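Sequence of 2-polyprenyl-6-methoxyphenol hydroxylase (Nocardiopsis flavescens).
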Amino acid sequence: MTAVHDVLISGAGVAGPALAHWLHHHGIRATVVERAPAPRPGGYAVDLRGVAVDVAERMGALAEIRRGVTGMGRASFVDSRGRRVAGFSSADALGGDRSLEILRGDLVRILHTPTEAYTEYLYDDTLTALEQDGDRVRATFERTAPRTFDLVVGADGLHSATRRIAFGPEERYARFLGAHISIFTIPDHLGLDREARLFNAPGRGSGMYRTPRAEGAKAIFIVRSAGAGGIDRRPPAEQRAYLRAEFGGLGWENDRILDAMDASGDFYFDSVTRIHMDTWSRGRITLLGDAGYCPSPMSGQGTSLALVGAYVLAAELARHGRAEDALAAYGARMRPYVDANQAVADAGLAVLAPRTRRGIVLRNTALRLGGPLVGLLGRLDRRLSDAAEGLDLDAPAPARP
Ligand SMILES: Cc1cc2nc3c(=O)[nH]c(=O)nc-3n(C[C@H](O)[C@H](O)[C@H](O)COP(=O)(O)OP(=O)(O)OC[C@H]3O[C@@H](n4cnc5c(N)ncnc54)[C@H](O)[C@@H]3O)c2cc1C
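Predicted 3D structure, token representation.
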């Protein structure tokens, strides 16, 4: 008999609804508090790889995810006048049954919608304090009256409030990887068809990408920076001004993308950061997904870690009589898988935003000629798929800690 009957989850992104599903499956009640007024749409394509595909299948979500895959065709690097200078077909990259690419907003909708029938969602609210009292945790919110739960799970992303409250300031755990990323939807004035067009200036990358069923195109900006004064924590208006200063007047479609950015309804801007923690649990508070082990958007593994983490956490809660044992088992099973996936190089940054003009020319030449870069990408691909397969969902219970 599980010792945990009711769980508060902070965050309704990918990890939160996935955990709500699995808790319900095991007969555990979930309440989800989400800062946004509704599940946040937006985001570029995210990947489900390896055992995360199995988790999606066990959730009964795989068929719908497969219907929503981006069906990405090719990516072209263009110069300031829009002429193609290099490119690759996504079929050359990851593929097959063990790797699916879907727009983040579509995935959030697919995961979230069924959970509404059996999960209480507290939107437009956030945790302000947590107090552990014996076997219960008292949660205080900005708007909702305080409540107590058997367990609190922080699934509130890279800038997790749960982590800050229970484990201390973000700076203690965050490793900034030297870049910022912005993604938002704009009208597709290029008439793209499953194609990405990508542009570079030294230390900067921009692009547009359209999937078959999407209403508009996704625009992306990546800027290498030594810190840029904590711009990721500044208001969106300042982030937009920062992007205007970095990309205005560079040629290609940059000015049109910047013009369309102001009208976009799903502007996303964040730092490229990893979260490293020695432990994800403190008493009856634990962390899941980006909150505990964000591998950075450039690794492409954040969504898989979140889905697999949700499955493992719920399974261990159902398996153990004591919450402490369940959380220890969750940590022990996830640790090697998280380490392996975080160790996969952030090759995306090197390919999408080389630091120097020479780096851009070298990348383009290597892509045109094939050879070493393609070999290197192949090896990285294999490391990535090995890491993504590196957890046994049906592992027997680990030895009692
Ligand atoms: C709008 C958006 C766009 C993204 N786009 C991309 C992308 O294009 N490519 C990519 O690789 N990754 C992207 N990510 C990150 C990616 O979704 C995660 O790496 C991954 O899916 C892991 O999911 P998660 O549930 O742990 O975190 P997230 O998906 O980030 O979800 C966290 C959730 O917690 C909520 N939240 C945050 N703070 C609080 C709080 N104080 N109280 C309550 N709720 C809170 C957020 O609103 C969000 O709904 C994006 C995240 C967001 C929020």
